[in-house]
């Protein structure tokens, strides 16, 4: 059995981030986005005012799945199965109820699809989506996954939409409150 990764610091914050699942390195360092994808992600956030250490102290970090799902035989990490997502969903929704975030940053398509079923990232990235989750009104801002395997954030329209999403996060009152 693969042990769960400690999601993030148990900080009460108006901002929550939700990723896909820990990778093999995160399972070793026991913190989310603790490897290559994290370097990219934290560069994005540094551009709107929070370096990695400050982000980890001020943003509640969570994930769709809590355990490393294993390697994909074709390369990269395996996408968690529907059963794995369902198993962890009660934990994620409990965090939303407890935290009552004003802003949720969705990182990657699996996280985005839990709340905004879409086929293409350009349908949702770059926009703020007002939703009600667990009886709580909140804003969702989707981001592409920062994995080096994904070219989407480095090519158009992804490059522009990523910048629009980061600007929306940076201007959000909940983000401003944690700066």
Q: What is the compact description of this entry?
A:
The protein has 179 residues and is of the alpha/beta class. The chain is built from seven helices and five strands, in the order E-H-H-H-E-H-E-H-E-E-H-H.
Order of helices and strands: EHHHEHEHEEHH
What is the CATH superfamily label?
A: Uracil-DNA glycosylase-like domain
CATH topology: Uracil-DNA Glycosylase, subunit E
Q: CA-to-CA gap between the ends?
A: 39 Å
Query: Strand share of the residues?
Result: 15-25%
Low-confidence stretches: none
Radius of gyration: 15 Å
Q: Overall mean pLDDT score?
A: 92
What shape does the CA trace take? globular
How many helices?
7
Task: Describe the SSE topology.
Elements: E1 15-19, H1 24-29, H2 36-46, H3 52-58, E2 60-63, H4 82-99, E3 103-107, H5 109-115, E4 129-133, E5 136-143, H6 158-171, H7 173-178
Parallel strand pairs: 1-2, 1-3, 3-5
Antiparallel strand pairs: 4-5
